Amino acid sequence: MTPGFPLGIFLTAALARPVFPQERPALHEEILRAEDHRARNAGELQVLLTTLASQDQRLVERGLLALGRLERPELAERLFPLLNHLLPGVRASAAQAVAQAAQGFRRNPVGRTRDPAWPALLAQLGTRVNVERDSRVRGMLALSLGRLPYATPQEMLQAQEWLIALAGDLRGDASTDVARGIETFARLTRERVPLAEPLLAPVRGLARDERADPPARRSALGALLAAKAADSATLNSALRSADPLLRRLAFAGVAGGSDPEARAALLLVGVTDASALVRAEALRHWARVTGETACVRLLEATRDTVPMVGLLALDLTGSSCAGNPQASRILLAVAWDSTARWQRQAHALVSLARVAPAGTREALGAARSAPVWQLRMYAARAALLLRDTTTLRRLATDPTANVREAVLGALRELSGHSEDSLYRAALRVSDYQLVLTAANALAGSPEPRKAAAALLAALERISRERSETSRDPRLAILARLAELGGPDLAPRLRRYLEDFDPVVADSAAALLASWTGRAARARPRPLVPVPLSLGELARLRGKRLRFSMASGASFDVALLVDAAPLTVLRVVGLAARGYYDGLTFHRVVPNFVIQGGSPGANEYAGQPRFMRDELGPLSHQRGTLGISTRGRDTGDAQLFVNLVDNPRLDYDYTVWGRVISGMEAVDGILEGEVIRRVTLVAPSP
Known about the structure:
The protein is built from 34 helices and 8 strands. By secondary structure, it is α+β, with helices and mostly antiparallel strands. Strands 1-2-7-5-6-4-3-8 form an 8-stranded antiparallel barrel. Helix 12 (about 195-210) runs antiparallel to helix 13 and helix 29 runs parallel beside helix 31 (about 500-515).
């Protein structure tokens, strides 16, 4: 037992306490508010900086987390002293914050090479590797060094030396974090610097260690796969594991092997695995590896007892069974089966268009008038494959925006600007995704004046809604106006220099300058921040959100109040107002995520006010929940559930909840399934 062991026990207990204690609530609310505003003025920044000198460990750690999330590299120097703090928890938080601050360099990689903060930041984290003894801090150092935005091969090689020094912890308490750091590093740098054998060897050892924690083994195998260094002995060890997530991951390595017969033999075992996650992964690679012989097995899999696997198999037949008469018969039968779930009909229809185009026409005609709008949307996708512009034009006036959006994307590809009148008409609708697609379709329009008039009218109408989540369609409109408009429109665009969205204001300034030849200065007027209450946050600790589906299934989500307080407050507040009731999970990707909570059942319709990212060391493991975004701090309250471990989402999307019961219900959710209600519940006694 080392002399520091009793202190370690004490610190572990201290770290288990809430980050937001009951004492001094006003100060903690001020910190939370400053973070929510991204410290937009000197006073709010000073609130966060003041925490660094506090005697309250939880206050220091909260301040470090908030300062790192600002992603301002110039602040890193203020954080360096905390890397030497007496308390390991503070040192770990400081390493995390320094690495997060460095992410600001990703927005300006050229400036990084000239910014003195960059070499200082590298040196500070690297120096800690050789002097730090606490395993938790060493794990955080690995996570931090693994995700820095390295500029040169020399920097990457130096970072690899630091990770080699930390790899000794792969057998200890920090094994998962160290492995995660190495996995991230391999993924970000593999195209420029291969992992050296002194780093690969301990990673292989962990991946094969049957006594190791499953998440650590999965991260180790993920690192080997990212580095393209997963040997057969390691893969075979993973394939024998009782952990289905590890077996699933191993099949990605099997598919990349050099022996076609050996790959096919192993994948054949995978497609009959007891776990649906493994079967789905093996099927995906089976279709690619076995070529023409894949079809028979895929057709069998279309009848899998797990709907998600059956739908994936239906999709894969489209690329593997072209011209196969048996596949044509099976797909046609499913496409016409009105007793089947619409999802099976829809997926079969699209694959049928690939496998037997001539036999698809009649089924397509029936789908075109189906009462379920999603089936009509898939009909538009099938029509694109068939180059059936007649069907597409009939669907162009569909009452559902998502159907029309699929039609416009198809017509843009097949008919180009002969359909410009449809694109201009679509700019008059309220659905942001449809407006964005229409704006993009007008690129290069031969009638620029008509297009510009319709675009500007759409911009003015959407802007009056003052919705932050209208950014994407408005930017698309401005891009099209830059191409099709001219200086005569400048007077109507000047108002956007003071737009509520700074990104839109900057884009308007650039457009006006290009038209007039004179500099235009953006003066955005942001919306009033959404109010928040620390008292409300304290009430949520220990509570759960219960998602009750219209199908009768349900699942409970533990709220990660301390990791993502702002997100938890927003999501719970929306749920209390019934925002999610009646919405759907509109996006279901096997072995990735399910995503829902969109009023328009698409990627671009969400709650009008942006949500702040709350990025931290929590990983997107299976069963965790995140918030969908399209860039930093652009969450629109759409949420997703990770169906498998998704480490590539780490540090890009907020982790705010974890499914603690009903994961089997999550696995069973199909595209379009309705959320009946989301309620806040207390844990069972």
